């Protein structure tokens, strides 16, 4: 299945390159989000219910996808490969993030009010009083964090499992994306039902976050940035997101700051428009490198 695994990664990359995202009305992650939204309410036993949600919903999604690819495999391996590639495409996303980040960054120099509104699509924070530099910081932070969440995690889950079985690879990518989606919707202190989803996501993202930091460092042609990042990586509340964010802050030699929460690379200045443009280029190169490495892993 090694050749088919590489082909699946290639199909996902080509779909991402040409289409960016599936239409919202047919996007499986959007459908899954609607299921999650139905669970976002008061429960008599929220922690126990949260555990069932965290363990059950991703498992159901993964098993369903795995069965579909197994059925396709019985038809023909190429059919299963195309389906697995489409699954991987729907569980990863990067080009739209890069384009949105570029657009918001340009707005910070021309229309700060619009930039504050549009940045909400990238970063979950109150942007109403953010300065242009703080908005650009939010954009750059989102770029680095979503390299891990939006691409590396599902991509490498697929690649590692592809030599074993295409259905398993597609199921693994789906499971990781489902866990991440649960955390993004329920994993807040204000939502007791989301505690298990948040803890599970912390465990699942431990390796992808650090791998993403390494990819950013290599894409920036400076592996010593990882040493610099180690000093600030534990500043954010998340045990994982600080690694790619701190590495990009080091690579750009800029300060990333979420007011009242954390500051990364505190001696530097907040990013300029040119800094974030460079950050977009770095993350784009890191994304392409991730696909290449995933293809190699899938091959072997």
Keywords:
2 strands; 300 residues; mainly alpha; two-stranded antiparallel sheet; globular
Query: How much of the residues is beta strand, in percent?
Result: under 5%
Tally of DSSP helical segments: 13
Secondary-structure content class:
mainly alpha
**N-to-C order of helices and strands:** HHHHHHHHHHHHEEH
Strand order of the largest sheet: 1-2
Shape: globular
Distance between the termini: 10 Å
Q: Low-confidence stretches at least 5 residues in length (pLDDT < 50)?
A: none
Largest sheet: 2 strands, antiparallel
**Residues in helix, %:** over 70%
Q: How would you state the average pLDDT, rounded?
A: 93
Structure explained in plain terms:
By secondary structure, the protein is mainly α. It has 13 helices and two strands. It has helices at 2-19, 28-39, 46-75, 77-91, 95-107, 112-118, 132-161, 166-186, 195-204, 206-219, 225-230, 242-252, 273-299, and strands spanning 256-258, 262-264. Strands 1-2 form a two-stranded antiparallel ribbon. A hairpin with a 3-residue loop joins β1 (256-258) and β2 (262-264). α1 runs antiparallel to α13 (273-299), α2 packs across α8 (166-186) and α4 (77-91) packs parallel to α8 (166-186). The protein is globular, with a radius of gyration of 19 Å. The N and C termini lie close together (10 Å).
Layout of strands and helices, then pairs:
Layout: H1 2-19, H2 28-39, H3 46-75, H4 77-91, H5 95-107, H6 112-118, H7 132-161, H8 166-186, H9 195-204, H10 206-219, H11 225-230, H12 242-252, E1 256-258, E2 262-264, H13 273-299
Antiparallel strand pairs: 1-2
